[in-house]
Amino acid sequence: MVYGSNGRNPVVTIAAMVALLLGLLFFVLKNPNTLYNQHLRTGNEYYRSGDYYGAVREYKLAQKAKPNDKFIWMLLGMGHYKQNRYQNAIEDDTAAIKAFKDWKSLAALYFNRGLCYQAQRHLDLAAADYRQALKYQYNNSDAMLNLADCCRMDRKPEEALKALESYHKINAPTFGSYIIRANCMLQLNRFKESEEDFAHAASFRPGDSNLLANLAWTQYKAGEVTKSIETNRRVLGTSKNMKVARFNLALALATIGNAAEAKEQYDLALDKSIEPDRRSALLDLNEAVAAHPDSASLKQSYEYLQKHVH
After folding, report:
1. Res 11: pLDDT
2. What CATH code would you report for 8-137?
């Protein structure tokens, strides 16, 4: 059982458009006297301070002063994205895409709309927009990484790895790229490679219990059961209530024949656990029993856990 393998947030967010915002702010400061520019300047101040509701309000007032201005569509898209109003942002970005002609703006706008589609889990549409961003800016590292993450989320690991290959041609491996690659390798049942990538990711965040729980799972799947037990114990030493690590520790103990401690760990895991975690644990046990049909401890654990799954 992997912890948090279906993350919904893109690896790279709105930062790609900040340069455009700063450029527009410079333009406003040079032209301070119109009502349009006054609202635009105030909106940008709100945006930079993190008040995205205030920013959107001012951008809409600027739009009333100067209807159909393409910069306003772009800024409204950024503000709505920050408010998690993704459909509004998509509509703003689409209007801006129709208005802009220069490649830098179009690359940023397709990237931003891709973020919105990815947040809505419209993964095909998000991937298409990231590819459009790369069409206009072939070396856009952010678009490469988010394209890879989209394909990973859509369970298209080969496409994700292809995007990561492009990313790594111009960037050193990062925490985000290791996480994406580790999950792709897990989807492809290449467990040893997944274990190595999770270990690299964990080196960026040594105390991250979620990462260590995923590392422990790949160690188990790679056949390194003793290492998996050690890593799960490490996780539970700092996050004793992490049910996924507790279930996985119990499974590993049952696999090496330690039925008594496996039962103790299953009891601790079952306490206040949620039904989806219990079902996942039972599926993992079922798979383990099929792989080790002569294991009495696995069969015993399966029969015990089955009584607690509805």
Report:
1. 56
2. 1.25.40.10
